[in-house]
Every structure is written in structure tokens, then in C-alpha cells.
Write a structure and sequence with these properties.
Elements: H1 2-9, E1 14-17, E2 31-32, H2 34-42, H3 46-49, E3 55-57, E4 59-64, E5 67-73, E6 84-86, H4 89-100, E7 106-109, E8 113-120, E9 123-131, E10 134-139, E11 143-145, H5 152-157, E12 161-163, E13 168-176, E14 186-190, E15 193-199, E16 203-211, H6 215-221, H7 223-233, H8 241-244, E17 252-254, E18 259-261, E19 265-266, E20 269-271, E21 277-278, H9 286-306, H10 316-350, H11 359-366, H12 372-379
Parallel strand pairs: 1-7, 4-14, 11-20
Antiparallel strand pairs: 2-6, 3-6, 4-5, 8-9, 9-10, 12-18, 13-16, 13-17, 14-15, 15-16, 18-21, 19-20
Helix pairs in contact: 1-4, 1-9, 6-7, 9-10
Length: 393
């Protein structure tokens, strides 16, 4: 949607395909980081964007046993916004759609699922899609696959996926928030357990980290045993956990994968976002990396795509430039995530000893300046992009 907005803004004819009839998906990426808020500012949309419902997180905190420490402080970042905006993804998508549709060259096709590629003369020349009225084909000088970590189009294209490994899965839940609740957005670490909590104003969005493939073992132990593990980490949940987790239907499994394509493109086709590089939920950076991909893609491709005198085959060299531009931040981010999974989270899940506050976290808690390092890594990241694509007058 962001890429569609940027390209339409530059005068490029764009069709955005969405297989569902609306954007109301729960437990999608809801953390809009300072890097993305900076893009909204550069587009002149930040003020109206922040009129949408959202919650603000200016810091991340972690509780280890009975000790608590501040881990990241976003207020010191040299960005327009020193906070993470916790906004339901449907609000974000609705906002982008509303502004993209002010450009005559933008078209959003709901209930339209891309199912295959049209190839002609050795290059991709369009997509096949399933609609409520049947199968259709849409021709295009360029197809951009933004269809996520289980991308249909990257599979059809035969791209090679490099799997970096993910020894964890995540259980997503909503726990009601009550007056007197303490703490904020951050993590809770107990014996053999790790829980991420996001303060969503009226409820806690929680992510309980488990070993890869461990859901059946947890289910076998019973729902009450799982509730007690949650309460052991967050005692204030005790009086509400039974109602909030009435059945296993209230627990959503996210199967974590960390991978990337060896090559993101072929003539006429480009993959970006999770279709090019699936991220771990660590740091909540996936949506923001995808936005950065979109900005870089528009920066490099908007002018060539808008040039009617430039043939479709002449666009191919720019696709390699997109991958070259975005591969470095992808590698860096995934390396940090894999290191955290393998060296911190996995040993924690295997441990039977009560955890103690690591020395480095004590330093972060004591020296506020040090909290800017993890804040920058999460909130801005490697090689942040800035809007350079033109706006057609």
C-alpha cells in the first residue's frame, strides 16, 4: 500500500491487489516505529496520521524475576517522533488507502488474490488473479510481490529461499487491562519463560515465546497449566486470565521464520517486504523494514516507471539496485535477530534456574544515554530510507 501511494504520487499507474474484503486482521504488525513516522512526515501526512487511534510507547522496559530495568528510550532519537505508535494495522492501511486514492492513477482491487504470473518473451508481464467474478489477468510493466512470508508469487517464480532458522514460535493473546495495572510495553522474563507485553490502552497484547513446534506439548499440559505460567510471569493477570483465555481459541500461534531470497527479482518481477525477507517478531521491525523497502523501491523506480518512453525491459537494471540497496539492512537486522534467538531466548527457554538481571541491562538502566543504542536499532535501524521519489504536479 505504501509503495502504491508513492508510485501513484509520482504519476505511475498502479493496481494494488488485496485478497480480502477489508483489512481487519488481528495480531498483525501494529508497531509503527520512528523510521516509518519519519516517512509520514516527509510525505506531509504525519499530523493527519496521528489523528488515527494509537497508543504511544516512549520506552521499552524488561522485568527479570522481580527486577525491572529500562532497555530502550526513544525520546532521544534524532527523528521527528521519539516514540513508537501502537496502531492497529487496519488503521494504518485505511489511512494509506485514503490518501493513495486521491491520485487518479491509483486503483485498489479488494477481494482479488494474486495466484500466478503471466510471462511473455522471457519476462514477467502481469499477474493472474482470482476475484469474486472469476479468474482475470492484469498486464504490467512491473509486478511487485508484497504478499508476505508465505508469498505465492515468489513460489511461482521459483526463487531460492535461504532459511536462517528460527528455534522459536510465538503465542499471541489479548489480556484485558484493568485500573491499577502497572508496567508498560516491554518484556517479562521468568524461569524458562519469556513474555512480551504491548500496552494497547484498553488491553495488553501479549506474546508468549515457546520453543519451535512446542505448541502440542503446551496443549497436552492443559490450558490451566498455561494460564498459571502466564500468572507466574505477570501476577496481576491472576483475576482475569480464566475469562480472557477461556479456550485455546483465544491463543493464536505464530510460526516464526527467518529467511530471505538469494535474488529478489527477475525481469518484470520484484519481491519486497516479507516476501523477500521474513523477519522474526523480535523488535517488531518487520512492518517497518517493509516500509523502508517500499520507499527505496519508489526512490529508484518511480521516475523510470513514469517515463512512457522507457520500455519495460529497461526497468530490469533498477530491480537489482533495489536489492543491492536493501540487502545490507536485511542482513544486519536478521543477524541480530538470529543472534538474539540462539544466544539469549533459546537458552532462556531451556533454563530451569531463576533468571537474574544481566549486567548489561543494569548498565542500560543506570545510564540513560546507553538506552539510545537499542532504541536506534529498533526504532530506526540500519540504512533508513528517506522519500526522494517525485510528486507529479
Amino acid at each position: 500500500m505504501m509503495l502504491g501511494l508513492l508510485l501513484a504520487r509520482a504519476g505511475v499507474e498502479v493496481n494494488v491487489l488485496e485478497k480480502h474484503g477489508d483489512f481487519l486482521r488481528d495480531f498483525r504488525g501494529d508497531t509503527v516505529h520512528p523510521s516509518t513516522l519519519e516517512v509520514m512526515h516527509e510525505l506531509g501526512l504525519l499530523e493527519s496520521f496521528l489523528q488515527r487511534p494509537f497508543d504511544k510507547a516512549t520506552e521499552l522496559r524488561v522485568q527479570v524475576g522481580n527486577e525491572e530495568a529500562a532497555l530502550a528510550d526513544f525520546t532521544g532519537l534524532k527523528t521527528r517522533c521519539g516514540f513508537i505508535a501502537l496502531m492497529p494495522q487496519w488503521e494504518f492501511l485505511d489511512f494509506l488507502r485514503d490518501h493513495a486514492q486521491t491520485y487518479p492513477s491509483f486503483r485498489l482491487m479488494m477481494n482479488t488474490e494474486a495466484t500466478g504470473l503471466v510471462e511473455q518473451g522471457g519476462r514477467v508481464s502481469g499477474v493472474r488473479a482470482r476475484t469474486q467474478d472469476g479468474e482475470i489477468e492484469i498486464g504490467a510493466d512491473l509486478v511487485v510481490a508484497c504478499d508476505g512470508r508465505r508469498s505465492t508469487l515468489r513460489g511461482v517464480a521459483g526463487f531460492t529461499v535461504h532459511n536462517l532458522g528460527a528455534p522459536i514460535d510465538v503465542l499471541w493473546m489479548r489480556i484485558s487491562k484493568q485500573p491499577g495495572d502497572t508496567g508498560g510495553t516491554g518484556g517479562r522474563i521468568g524461569t524458562g519463560s519469556f513474555l512480551a507485553m504491548i500496552d494497547r490502552g484498553s488491553y495488553w497484547q501479549t506474546a508468549f515465546v515457546i520453543a519451535k513446534g512446542g505448541m502440542e506439548k503446551i496443549k497436552a499440559a492443559g490450558l490451566e497449566a498455561f494460564r498459571q505460567r502466564m500468572v507466574a510471569l505477570v501476577p496481576m493477570f491472576a483475576g482475569r486470565i480464566a475469562a480472557d483465555l477461556a479456550s485455546w481459541d483465544d491463543v493464536k500461534l505464530l510460526s516464526v521464520s527467518v529467511d530471505r531470497l538469494e535474488q529478489w527479482w527477475k525481469p518484470g518481477l520484484l519481491c519486497i517486504g516479507d516476501a523477500a525477507h521474513a523477519m522474526s517478531p523480535i523488535g517488531g521491525v518487520g512492518i517497518n523494514l517493509a516500509i523502508q523497502d517500499a520507499v527505496a523501491t519508489a526512490n529508484l523506480l518511480a521516475a523510470p516507471l513514469a517515463d512512457d518512453g522507457l520500455g519495460a525491459d529497461m526497468i530490469t537494471p533498477y530491480l537489482a539496485k533495489v536489492q543491492a540497496r536493501r540487502m545490507f539492512p536485511t542482513r544486519v537486522t536478521q543477524a541480530v535477530q538470529v543472534a538474539a534467538q540462539n544466544n539469549l531466548i533459546n537458552p532462556l527457554l531451556d533454563s530451569t534456574r531463576p533468571p537474574t538481571m544481566p549486567f548489561v541491562l543494569r548498565l542500560f538502566n543506570r545510564f540513560r544515554l546507553m538506552r539510545r543504542w537499542p532504541a536506534y536499532a529498533v526504532g530506526v535501524g540500519a540504512r533508513p530510507e528517506h522519500v526522494q521519489s517525485p510528486e507529479k504536479s
